[in-house]
Design goal:
heterotrimer; A mainly alpha (134); B alpha/beta (301); C alpha+beta (333); A: 134 residues; mainly alpha; Arc Repressor Mutant, subunit A; two-stranded antiparallel ribbon; C: 333 residues; alpha+beta; 2 domains; four-stranded antiparallel sheet; 68% helix; flat
């Protein structure tokens, strides 16, 4: 089960936050196929956000084929985001080493983040999964 | 949206005047026209004294409009009385009754509709002792009991006048959660007023901005935000033919909130306003043209 | 009152308001019941032992004749008088108490602190709310004051002719509490108070307005009372006096043509003045003892009519101020 944490000051639309956090949970293996997402009622009771926002996020996840709504039962995970990178994978190690190097080179947190984002943009522009939603 | 069946609340040219006719009458609300679809969570926002409470009291059938008509759940407010929940700003309750007695009274006053389990759950979730007298409760606890009374009658439309005022952040978050859960589970339409916009952001999907007794903005929050753009650029940039809600120049810099009526000049940097920015811009500029059906109609004439 | 609330009752099971009315106004109920019980006990005490003792005291006194050293039970006579006066005054004040409570607590207070609106947004229409608020207290007030009036009348009758200083039937306070007029005044007080609360919408102010209105109503009743039933006229010659045993309405001179004229001012030389005015006799308009019941029933009837009128006004005011289901037929289509 996932618990959503909504940051109202982040500037990221609330439903996008739910979509992202669900995907995060799928990548990290916290959610697996067959798992039930919390009901809209459960989410809004804990977060005090609008129910339609939760439904919008779930519809988006459904559109992407990640979850399916079963009438009267709830929303269930259909497939995982299998390319998840466990903490001990070689990729993690390489990134970790790179971050240490960046730090030694005198880059601060924001510099690194900007650099990383720029590289991400270059390699993943066509896969910007939420860009076409709004 | 246009059929009356799907509407929870509709006001047509509603005005409400207070004070005796022979003295200078004061209009608390004037020429107020809007529609609210069922299932929405609507924020009624405006400065103090804008007419928010009057509007809610009219919808609850506690007041009659001086002019115009209010339609609630497809009928007149009095006929909808049993299907509407209302919590007044100061959360009136009988201080001499206990929490349990208050809920029992609700059951007796709403025969055939009362959902005792809901009322008891809302009260119990707040850790309230059913045997405690209402007069001994804190502000947040009173609000909880008042909400329990309003929700246990299973309203299709819930009207809340400044429900979160005087509550600490924790109680505010908890009670907003209770309300949202109600909306999620029963599709209850919720209309709540506040003069603190930040309090409602995220919980509401519809906005009704009231200023000076009139409707300034009315619509889905996403639509309203999408229709407006925050722009900044050089002071000499012309914003014609776009509708300017608010514009300020600081030195050579121009910042403005506009409702574009076409593509904006390339030289301007644009961003999406937050709900609070949007509301504040309109409130700071009483002359800014609003977007309400009534205004459109008037403009057409 | 119930007729107005009836349409709403046809649609859904009716809300149980009376039970909560009793619960919310429990202190008032206790105070009123306590007052009625204490006064009833005092009246019973007066009716039996005190009347007998006082009558015996007067018998002893009358037996004394001119005997200089005579013993009689003066304490019994004084005790009767004191308890009688206090009880009568307390009964007379009951309608004012009812009006003050109705204005301050029943309607004014509820409108001031918003609990009226709370009830109206539960399943209760304002009209039904007011109907319950008036019906139940009206029944209690009618029963309570009715019982006291009955006991007072029995008690007063028991002393009549036996106690030399017992109050006459037309003594202002005694008359006020000795018959159904008091029930009428108390019920009018309830409605006057409730209406004051609806108009003023503040507990304390409504209490004040209710009391002022009741004082005005009482003085109006007092001045109208002699004219509520045709008076009896007696005439006599010029030497007979103006004193009558009954409620005086008017008196004056009768001329030789039979015309009734007022008594002129004459400084000790009345005979000359009378001759000048062609006065041959005097007349008295008054109500004899036999008019007690007609007067009381008329007073009660008029006060009840006023109460009904004010009730109607209260409902009109409330339904005009709040939304009422005017479009029920339209909505049903």
């Amino acid at each position: 089960m996932v618990e959503y944490r909504i940051d109202r000051r982040s500037g990221v639309a609330t439903y996008v936050q739910i979509v992202q956090q669900t995907k995060q949970a799928l990548r990290l293996g916290l959610l697996e196929p067959g798992d039930k997402l919390p009901t809209a009622r459960e989410v809004v009771e804990a977060t005090a956000i609008n129910p339609n926002t939760v439904l919008k996020a779930y519809r988006e996840l459904e559109r992407e084929g990640l979850v399916e709504a079963r009438r009267g039962l709830g929303t269930f995970v259909r497939r995982s985001l299998g390319t998840a990178t466990p903490a001990e994978s070689p990729l993690h190690g390489e990134l970790d080493a790179w971050a240490s190097k960046a730090r030694e080179a005198g880059l601060d947190r924001e510099d690194v983040a900007a650099l990383f984002t720029a590289v991400l943009e270059k390699h993943f522009t066509d896969k910007h999964s939420l860009g076409d939603v709004s | 949206m246009t059929d009356t069946a799907g509407l929870a609340l509709e006001a047509t040219a509603v005005g409400r005047r207070f004070g005796a006719r022979w003295k200078a009458p004061a209009w608390a609300l004037r020429d107020c026209t809007f529609k609210l679809a069922a299932g929405r969570v609507c924020a009624v926002v405006g400065p103090n004294g804008a007419g928010k409470s009057t509007l809610l009291a009219l919808a609850a059938g506690l007041l009659v409009p001086t002019e115009g008509t209010v339609t609630v759940l497809g009928t007149d407010p009095a006929s909808a009385r049993t299907r509407v929940g209302y919590v007044a700003q100061d959360k009136p309750l009988y201080p001499q009754l206990t929490v349990a007695e208050t809920l029992r009274m609700g059951a007796d006053l709403n025969p055939g509709r009362w959902d005792a389990a809901t009322g008891e759950r809302i009260v119990a979730d707040g850790g309230l002792d059913p045997a405690a007298r209402v007069r001994s409760l804190s502000g947040g606890q009173r609000t909880r009991v008042a909400l329990a009374l309003a929700l246990a009658k299973r309203p299709e439309l819930l009207l809340l006048d400044e429900p979160m005022a005087d509550l600490d952040p924790l109680a505010r978050h908890e009670l907003m959660g209770v309300l949202m859960a109600q909306a999620a589970q029963h599709g209850t339409t919720i209309v709540m007023s506040s003069h603190v916009v930040a309090e409602l952001e995220g919980s509401c999907d519809h906005l009704l901005l009231i200023g000076g007794g009139r409707v300034r903005l009315s619509g889905e929050i996403d639509d309203l935000l999408a229709a407006h753009v925050r722009v900044s650029g050089l002071a000499e940039t012309s914003l014609d033919p776009h509708t300017v809600v608010e514009a300020r120049t600081t030195g050579r810099q121009l910042t403005a909130l506009v409702r574009p009526s076409g593509p904006l000049p390339e030289s301007l940097r644009t961003s999406t306003p937050s709900l609070e920015e949007l509301v504040l811009s309109y409130l700071r500029n009483p002359q800014a043209p609003g977007t309400t059906p009534a205004e459109h109609e008037k403009a057409a004439i | 009152m119930t007729a107005l609330a009836a349409p709403a009752a046809l649609r859904a099971p009716s809300p149980r308001l009376s039970r909560w009315l009793l619960r919310l106004h429990r202190p008032a109920l206790y105070v009123f019941t306590g007052l009625v019980l204490v006064l009833a006990a005092a009246l019973l005490w007066l009716w039996g032992p005190l009347t007998d003792a006082a009558a015996e005291g007067w018998r002893q006194w009358n037996a004394c004749g001119d005997h200089p050293r005579c013993s009689y039970d003066q304490d019994a006579i004084l005790r009767y008088k004191k308890v009688y006066d206090v009880t009568t005054l307390a009964m007379f004040l009951l309608p004012f108490l009812v009006a003050a409570w109705a204005g301050g607590a029943l309607t004014g207070g509820e409108l001031e602190n918003g609990t009226a609106e709370l009830t109206w947004t539960q399943g209760v229409t304002p009209a039904r709310w007011l109907a319950a608020k008036l019906a139940l207290p009206a029944a209690l007030v009618a029963v309570g004051t009715g019982l006291l009036v009955l006991l007072h009348h029995l008690m007063w009758s028991a002393g009549e002719g036996r106690i030399d200083t017992s109050k006459s039937w037309y003594d202002t306070l005694t008359f006020a509490v000795n018959g159904p007029g008091l029930v009428g005044l108390a019920l009018a007080g309830l409605v006057v108070g409730a209406l004051a609360g609806l108009v003023v919408r503040r507990a304390l102010a409504a209490l004040g307005v209710a009391l002022a209105a009741m004082a005005a109503l009482w003085f109006a009743t007092l001045s109208a009372l002699p004219y509520l039933w045709p008076a009896v006229t007696t005439t006599g010659d010029l030497d007979s006096g103006f004193a009558v045993d009954g409620l005086h309405v008017d008196y004056g001179l009768v001329t030789s043509t039979g015309r009734h004229i007022p008594v002129p001012v004459c400084n000790g030389r009345c005979e000359d003045v009378y001759t000048k005015l062609d006065a041959v006799g005097i007349y008295n308009d008054y109500h004899p003892r036999s008019h007690f019941w007609p007067l009381h029933l008329m007073e009660a009837g008029l006060l009840l009519a006023l109460a009904a009128l004010l009730t109607l006004l209260a409902f009109r005011l409330l339904t005009r101020r709040t939304a009422t289901a005017r479009h029920r037929e339209e909505a049903a289509v």
